[in-house]
Each structure stands twice: as structure tokens, then as C-alpha cells.
Design goal:
- This protein is of the alpha+beta class.
- The protein contains 3 helices and 5 strands, in the order ββαβββαα.
- Strands 2-1-5-3-4 form a 5-stranded mixed beta sheet, covered by helices on one side.
Length: 127
């Protein structure tokens, strides 16, 4: 199967792999191609993070000619948390606070509303 990986900097890497290759092995291959260490890689496909290192690409829903996002996790010195985790925490706080959501909608009216009014966006199934 042919896969294309795109970084946030716009770099692309095309690799040919077996559909039964596990995520951890794909990440090792990407380390050699991109120079991004496995510990700093974050992969997503169609908006869903791929997290299970033992899952095959096929089991993860990745098909031939798919495009995946390869992000580098950035660790803030002096903490064990990543910037990615902090951004997610901020997003969850925003979604859980109706006052902040109203302020955001006033500033940016095009901000999308959750699909199900009783469930915040982060709780709605995507993957």
C-alpha cells in the first residue's frame, strides 16, 4: 500500500508498506525518512489520532493511497506535558464553559456549534 505523510511544515514523504505493518514499525520507518524520533511523532488519519502501536494500518482504517498527518510533539522544557496536550486541555475547557463559548461566538460568528446540543464536540464520535 502506498501512503503519503504530510508534516505541518509541508514536507511530504511517500512510502510503500504492507497493509499488515504495525503502527510502531511505520513510525520507525518515518523516523528514518523524516528524522523525527518515534517519541516525538504523532500520526493522524482523517482527523483521528493513531495511537495503538500494535494495530496494523489496515486495522486502523488506513487504505491504499491514504494521506496521513505527521506532527512533531513539542515538549515544553521543565514539564512532562507537551504543547499538544496543553492545547487540547484549553480546547476542552473552552467547550465546557458556556460563557467562553458565547464570547467566542461573538468574536467569531462562524465558529461551528456542536452537532448534538447536549454533547460537546470532543465527546461526539469522529473515529
Amino acid at each position: 500500500m502506498n501512503l503519503t505523510f504530510v508534516t505541518e511544515l509541508g514536507e511530504t514523504f511517500s512510502v510503500e508498506i504492507d497493509p499488515q505493518m504495525e503502527l510502531e514499525n511505520v513510525m520507525a520507518l518515518l523516523e528514518a525518512e523524516s528524522g523525527i524520533p518515534i517519541s516525538e511523532q504523532s500520526l493522524s488519519h482523517e482527523g483521528c489520532d493513531l495511537r495503538d502501536p500494535k494495530a496494523t494500518m489496515r486495522d486502523s482504517g488506513v487504505g491504499d493511497n491514504s494521506v496521513l498527518l505527521l506532527r512533531r510533539k513539542v515538549h515544553v522544557p521543565g514539564t512532562s506535558r507537551s504543547v499538544e496536550q496543553d492545547a487540547e486541555m484549553m480546547r476542552l475547557q473552552l467547550l465546557g464553559d458556556p460563557n467562553l463559548m458565547n464570547q467566542l461566538r461573538q468574536v467569531r460568528p462562524s465558529f461551528p456549534l456542536p452537532k448534538h446540543p447536549s454533547l460537546p464536540t470532543f465527546m461526539q464520535p469522529k473515529c
